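Lab meeting prep.
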Amino acid sequence: MPSYKTLKEQAWAANREIPERGLALYTWGNVSAFDPGLAVFAIKPSGVPYTDLQVEDMVVVDLEGKIIEGKLNPSSDMPTHRALYREFTVEGGNPVYGIIHTHSTYAVSWAQACRPIPLFGTTHADHIQTSVPCTPYLSEEAVLRNYELETGNLITDFFKSEKLNAAEVTMVLVGGHGPFAWGSSAEKAVYNGAVLEEIARMAMLTLQISPDATPLPEYIIKKHYLRKHGPGAYYGQR
């Protein structure tokens, strides 16, 4: 029988980082860690405070939603994570091995306004080359059918319609709801979730200072993004 110990440890450590990064009050957030070889992910149990979490509390689920290991109920957002892994990782071949969802203040504010976060500066451009996209509201039919699963379907359908690459655009706002972010590990997903919250805050402050602020020029966006990404990247140590 496979051992899920390492996967559960990764999910546990990432979830404990949510309050440390100021990304959620109470239990308003969750992280999962995906194992592509086993096609399962470990996720936070529903409603358990971060300070009470133990490694053994993490719930291991397969891509059909079946609990493989764990005594507690998984996060109510588990079906959203499942939809994203199935579409972005398994079907799309993207290195999405960790996902975070929170209700962080500034990102949620943009989501509640149903507005994408404009790309105003190089901090934003260091991470993605577009505005942070925002989906429309879920339809009433989708909410009544299967709210959390349809949230995942909304995100993946939106990425298809907008021709967005999940390997490059690693964050999204769900209209009226809040942020999701992902990465090559659960740890990287938390990093991207924290980046999303910070650029959401910066963008809001920018518009308060200058309501007519304009997006960063494309040539600066490209320069900053490619400093950190791709074969010609030179930021940091190699």
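Slide two material, second protein:
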Amino acid sequence: MPSDAPATSSRPILRDPHRIPVIATDSHLPAVDPQHLNAATLRERLAGAHHWPPSIPGDGARPEWFGERQPAAASVLVPLVMRPQGLQVLLTQRTDHLNDHAGQISFPGGRAELHDADAVATALREAEEEVGLRHESVEVIGRMPVYTTVTRFVVTPVVGLVRPDYTLQLDAFEVAEAFEVPLQFLLDPANHQRHEFEMAGVRRQFLSMPWRPEGEAGREYFIWGATAAMLRNLYHLLRG
């Protein structure tokens, strides 16, 4: 997925976000009511939501900060797996050897191709190419407002419900792992950390949502940057 980390020679790359100080959490904000985390409510709230202004538009929406690189269209799939215990978000972790955004956690997705009919087609194609998630296993229920990364990708998040019997075949070059995180955890601002740093003379902030799976002592998935920002935008859509 196009990332929120700078990737030009004139902008240093934020390689270790874990080391950036946490300045606050958002525990003062209410969590999304678990009763609203269902297919019917999501369909209702996402109807026409791609026309709304995003809560977090992305730093790339401010070209005065990051140069004159031309915007490029991209899409990600926000896959919500329908489990008996509640909706789970399917995320990927990129392999460590990649030149760009190695090891980062993201939604499956990428740059739009000329043969893609629309943003939905891009998201479904990229998900199948990256993790082998077949479009027959996904019911697309809406699109979220675009998010613009600092590398000037204008990303459309496409939300889809995924059948629990889905199968995956990871692209081993790009994807190290695919895993699920409870949507309820990700949409609780008590789990949202704010970090602040300075890069190239500009003060910036980003969100993180570290997730530690039960029964896996010492394991942490550090969800941050563009992925965390798009999840925060989903939070605001569902809170209304």
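Talking points for slide two:
The chain has one domain: 21-239.
Confidence is low (pLDDT under 50) at residues 4-12.
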